[in-house]
User: Fold these one by one.
Assistant:
Number 1:
Amino acid sequence: MPASLLANRLGAFVQLAELTRGNLGRTQLMKLCYFLQAFRRVPLGYYFTLYAYGPFDSDVLSDLQTAESMDVLHTEIEYYPGGYKYDIRPGEKAGRSKGSAEDFLATHKKDIEWVAAKFGSRLAADLELLSTIAFVNQEEEIRDRDELIERVKLVKPHFSRRQIGREFDWLSGEKLLN
Amino acid sequence: MSDRVTCEIRCPIHGFIGLNEWENRIIDHPAFQRLRRIRQLAWTDYVYPSAMHTRFEHSLGVMHVASLLYDSVVSTSSRVLKQVYGYNDLGLTRDRQKVRLAALLHDVGHSPFSHGSEELFPEKPASEADVSGPSRKAKHFRHEDYSVGLIRDVFRAVIDDDDWNRRNYGITADEVAAIIEGNPKAGPALFWRDLLSGQLDADRMDYLLRDSHHIGVNYGRYDLHRLVSTVRAFGEPEGGDSTRDLKAPRIGISSGGWNAAEALILARYSMHKQVYFHKTRIAYDIHLRYAMESMLPQGKYPSPTREGLADYLKWDDWRILGMLGGGAGGEHGKRLLTRNHYRLVYQTRENPRNFEEFESAEAELKSVNKALGDLVVARKTCVNNWYKHGSVDIPVQNERNPDDVRPLSDYSSLLRGFTSSDQELLYVTPESAAAAKQIVSGVLKKDHSPQIKMDFTGGKRKDIANAS
């Protein structure tokens, strides 16, 4: 991967961590990167495919690890009964990382701020559902509300049709669906 | 006929691999038999002479391991599967067959010599490449695109039209392809995609053991059966608030399997360092790529369309070897025939320890590249995907306290310390290697940063900072 692409990705991670401080776990980071590409056409160069937990590219986690090893980001794990979650925050070298991606961040500052504002406070389960709806809409080119709800329901049966429909309507109202 | 095992194939890794009659008919298909003529590890036999095994046996092995994993998850986690996905026993039996077929057919789209010439896959039409925004990887077709294309086209008759399948399962080629490509049409079966391409997948579980066996190294070994017996599905509450919707279930392990999971990841690391990223092996990927480019019409493989796939299937190792033996492939064909490969003269360090080292490694690469100029005939990037942070993120459930779920990295201090980054490799011709090495030595002498550098006097690597 060109060094400039990695620098741009890490710069975007830092900016997302700053804007969503306290609410950026791994699922959130994955889905926010997906939204940056899918909704704002930000050239992060990830290739997302669909899993039961929504669009995913393991390169996002690989880059996160690189960022952690360079002190660009710092991650803590929080435990709770039956699970755990990650808390990703800017690290000591966050500023330098942003400096390495200065031009990229200047170009896409508004895109990153927009994604953080729209989705940054959502829970991981919500983001899994929202990104799956967006993926099915874009990749399968399903635009009909009922048809799309049924398709998403097949992949994520633990969500009710009402829940899926509510998120579909929200995305649709934001003019984010095709 | 039933779906009971009617045929067993002997396997050096798993003993016997059982097949039902339907699977046997699929394996007999010429497009599957072609995998007998696609080597698993390309030209690795030029480094490890016994690396002559093929995608055929690997595909059987992946189907076998996927079945073991599937059965284990079902036996340990039927409550989660029934609660979240509404499975009943019939549904689980049907999806087991789908997963077996997806595993069996996941590699049918490989080009000759497996990954060696994948750079020659054509570009996707702009409309497809732009679906998820500009993406470096999505610009070109991948072997998975050929696999799902072949399943939907060439294998459709032996899947959709198979009498026994129609009477019993009604599984379609589209359903099998959807699991492999990550298509929402897979429905609940998408959950099982992790067993084919995920943190604990049957693909890597098989190839590590198989490649180790055939090459004659022990790096790739780990305790498969312990790992399989501890695999399970977790329904994860959101942030501990059980009143919220569940995140989608994940595949994880019980705590009894964490050593086996750690060993799997270490095996992957070692195999990449010692085998897959071996400098000479990579040199032959370069030669194959350029030789193939001169042999393929317009220098590219056909696209995975109906017409293109028919042509694509005609390309296999035997055809390439015949062409090379007849003198095709130009300079690179000759180098392949005579084992006269490009030489590695410089590589960036594997793991920069901090931001400064990362930046200095980039600067050093630029200096070396500039000093070498036209002597550099090939540059390769080793994408260190042998280890993904996600791999260490495998959820581990305490056997004594089911509420205690932690990531694997919490158990393994070894894995906690792992970092990775891509490595850049610069190659020159053997004829210019001596001159190039002198130039690189000159550049590195000027740079006193604590980098791992090539020690050309002894031909081995040493840490300059520690040595001085």
Note: The two ends of chain A are 31 Å apart (CA to CA).
Number 2:
Amino acid sequence: MNFAFLPFHKTLFITLLLTIASVCFGAMSFGQLKPSSELDVFDMAGEGGITLMTLIWIFFTLVSRPSGRVTNLLFIGLLFTHVSVLLDFLDEFFIYPDQHWLTAIEALPAPLGMILMSIALYQWHKEQTTINHQLSRTERFYREHSLVDFTTGLYSAEYIKQQLKVEINHVKNQQTFFSLMMFDLRHFAQFNQDYGYQHGDLLLREVAQLIQMNIRDGDIACRYASDRFIVLMPNTNKNTAEEIEQQTKQAIEHLAFKYGQTSDAIYPKVISCNHQYRGWHRYEEVLDDINGHLSLSKQIAQQRCSA
Amino acid sequence: MSFFEQHEKNLAISLWLILLVDMAKKNHIAPDKILKGSKLFLSDLSNPTLVVSHQQFSQVIHNINKCLPHGNSAFLLGSRLYPSHLESAGQAIFHAQNLSDIIVTIRHFHHQVFPFLFMRSESSEQHQYCLFNQAISRENLHHYQFICELFTSLLISIAKQKQLPLSRLSIRFPYPAPRHIEQYHSYLPCQFEFSPSSKNFTGIAIQQSNNLPLQIKFDKGLLSYPLAHGNPTLIAHYQQKVPSTTANIGFIQYVMQKMVERLQKKQEINAQWLAEQLTMSQATLKRKLSQHNVTYQQLFDMVRQQQAVFLLTEQHFNNEKIARDLNFSDITNFRRSFKRWTGLTPQALKKVF
């Protein structure tokens, strides 16, 4: 598990501890300990479990979110709920004087917390919509975090296979078409040997970002494997694909990649290809075909080089 | 000449393990998960004289396959080994003048470059074939696939650096197309194909893919194609630095080579003969073979099956000639055995390739 967000939530953790401490202190000072014969084990276990669960929820919320308004709202909502549940749990151990105010308000924080949490969830929904928009050039319809490639932050080949399956079905039914483009960095193995694998990974990441910047909303870019990238463009014909391919290629070849602190720049060379498909083939055949097109482009480029 | 077994620690591949552990770290996987069950510790890896057994490495591969499901680890490792991590062997290959130099060098440094597979050469009129089989122990398909991927990506990175025209190479993998086909597309810029899997009516694969060899095929002209950085004096220098490692032969390699030799002489092969060759009792032989995940019959079948498939699909021999070459008394017998090995009749197999 990744605990990178935890240091940002120090104040929230202190708030949590102080609240729990004051609730326990309040209960102890106002109530008297029950004799052991009156303790109900089942109630204790049940309510104790709920109390623990709310704590776990708070922990996971904080672990998985950066600080901000939505996080604070979620935290406060959960904290209020937790206070109610905690008071309920402490009830099992303490007897309060009749009609004590603590028993009267015991249930109040829970509904308040739930209202706050509902507001927080609505805000979260809005936040998620924004993030989805940000992600729109890397994913469509379907999210699966285990398919993300660590190096580039794009989805891996497994994701494009699933998308292709969906797209091929769609295209077949609607009688439309889609296009694929592929990019392959030239001499990447040599680059890795000359500058090291860390810099190779950095280069891949930057190229991935450039590809994302140069495609349209609705297109999705994935890292195919190694130094090869693939872009799926729904409803796109050959001419448009060609245009976007050239633009993206130019953008990549104008990247002045820097390693370390020097100002020396390396301009990556890239081989690219595109093709339009109509959904007549299985996705394996489509992938074979686009890779075939790429090898062809590579051969042409090599011949041009030697000539 | 003698052989070594799967539990003997004589593989100097600590650099490979370091690269694998590094790869895992990048994917947020702890090193001890990769080394789990191999009786190796992270601190051992920095010891330059570390030697491991095939058993230990096999366990590491098992862990890698489990923890890193993207299927690219073998390819990444293969493309990073050459030239620096192969030491003098890498240097010798670096200065090879042509493909036949490379093949000779790989043979010479077999134990250093790639001890897990051993090579057998075949040729037809126009083509040269290199066939590779597991040398030390017959491992399961996942292991074999990893080894094949590792070896081919290593070869391709050598070929790329030497500017060998890759379009003239073609590789046949001994298993059906895997899920992570994208890695093959990206790492292997040459022709490649997979062996079809034949399934019986219940859907269970009959043909065991770890029975087939990895096959690399190229036209004979490529053997003498001049390569970049060729320098004969430097090769000789590096080759002399390391004595030939022909004495270090894996158990399976040893047995299979004996069988092939005998088959070529058209003499009878049986378990008793084999035990005599290895100077051990038949019971010991049986135990040793099972430690390497194989039985006498399986090995014998493997040798004949590989020959038969090669003669059939590459040399285009007819059944009669193949049956004669493989010491079968008659064609019916051969066809029956062929069906047992591959699940297909010779004619049907010819069609699927």
Note: Residues 240 and 352 of chain B are 46 Å apart (CA to CA).
